[in-house]
Design brief:
The relative contact order is 0.12. The chain folds into two domains: about 1-255, Rossmann fold; about 265-315, no CATH class. With about 325 residues, it is an alpha/beta fold. It has helices at about 1-10, 15-25, 30-35, 55-70, 90-95, 120-135, 150-155, 170-175, 195-210, 235-250, 250-280, 285-295, 300-315; strands at about 45-50, 75-80, 105-115, 140-145, 160-165, 185-190, 220-225. The protein binds guanosine-5'-diphosphate and magnesium ion. The site of guanosine-5'-diphosphate has 17 residues, from helix 4 and helix 5.
């Protein structure tokens, strides 16, 4: 363990990959590892990149990595694939696209599926961020595959959320406004080489003006990019830096990070206790019989639940 910790701290890619596998597979040793690394964390800036599948996240990311490398930053990217190890298609395409960075030791790219992690996918993401932060990456980018609830929880673990939208969403933007528009810090309209790009920008501006934005005086920046034509990338990259600098100056980054830690603590503690409860009650072994009793109306649901929870609490009262 001590050796693995040291290797990670020295930036050893294989050690980092190993740690991320531990997180992914929820190995018990990961707890000690993360705690050993934790004092070395706190230097990285973390971006979350989210948006509908096919909006160009990976294509854009490829360009952003190159841009950030030119600024001298060491960059790590984790593509979160909450679904399964089987939806490899998208990731495979991304791998190919990012291949040109594969010989660059200042770039680490990896996808992460997460199954049983204690704190869910968001918790696994938070742990992976700690590993990469301790390993000395200046910039960590978390890319999601889509924009579902899990993805929202994932990007909430980052310092700044880049939300990618594309022309032609139209009604979808309206539909999205309730959910994901709120999580975006910086809005990117990619595929601006397409006809409807300006219209999309106007729609995004409109939707943002509707939100009860807590930062009314400071509207969310909107950038137009074309990842295929390599347009707007410098402006975007500079814009993100400025945005983060502002967050730092007015203390908002600290607020965000504190909130993130609060969220993590909640996730971890509830998950840990739930696990213990399930273990003590023998939930997995007994659930079928409980179902059977309730199904056949042998027992009433609340009476049964209360009896079970009482048993648990009595047993744990000392
Ligand atoms: N026209 C146009 N196509 C793009 C642009 N960016 C990405 N694409 C294409 O959109 C498709 C999906 O891109 P990808 O990066 O895999 O999207 P992701 O699922 O969000 O990661 C690919 O065929 C890209 O070549 C762009 O700016 N303009
Ligand atoms: Mg992608």
């Amino acid at each position: 363990m001590k050796r693995l910790t040291e290797k990670i701290l020295s930036g050893d890619v294989r050690a980092i990959a190993r740690a991320i596998s531990w997180i992914e597979n929820d190995y018990a040793q990961k707890e000690q590892l993360i705690d050993d690394l934790y004092p070395h964390c706190g230097n990285a800036v973390v971006w979350g990149l989210t948006g509908p599948p096919g909006s160009g996240k990976s294509t854009l990311l490829n360009l952003l990595i190159a841009r950030e490398r030119m600024k001298g930053k060491r960059v790590a990217v984790i593509a979160i694939d909450p679904s399964s190890p089987f939806s490899g298609g998208a990731i495979l395409g991304d791998r190919l696209r990012m291949q040109k960075h594969s010989t660059d030791s200042g770039v680490f790219i990896r996808s992460m599926a997460s199954r049983g992690h204690l704190g869910g996918v968001a918790g696994a993401t938070a742990d992976a961020i700690k590993v990469l932060d301790a390993a000395g990456f200046d910039l960590i980018i978390i890319e999601t595959i889509g924009v579902g609830q899990t993805e929202i929880e994932v990007v909430e673990m980052t310092d700044v959320v880049l939300l990618l939208l594309v022309p032609g969403l139209g009604d979808e933007i309206q539909a999205l406004k309730a959910g994901i528009m709120e999580i975006g810090d910086i809005f990117i309209i990619n595929k601006s080489d397409k006809d409807e790009a300006m219209k999309t920008k106007a729609e995004v501006e409109y939707v943002l003006s509707l939100n009860d934005n807590p930062r009314k005086d400071r509207p969310n920046p909107i950038f137009m990019t074309s990842a295929v034509l390599n347009l707007g990338i410098d402006e975007l990259s500079t814009g993100i830096d400025l945005y983060i600098e502002e967050l730092r100056v007015n203390g908002l980054i600290e607020d965000k990070r504190r909130k993130r830690i609060a969220r993590e603590i909640r996730l971890m503690i509830t998950a840990k206790i739930r696990r213990e409860v399930e273990k003590q009650l023998g939930l997995n072994e007994r659930i079928d019989s409980w179902v059977d009793q309730v199904y056949r109306r042998k027992r009433r649901p609340y009476a049964m639940i209360n009896e079970l929870s009482d048993t648990f609490f009595k047993k744990n009262r000392t």
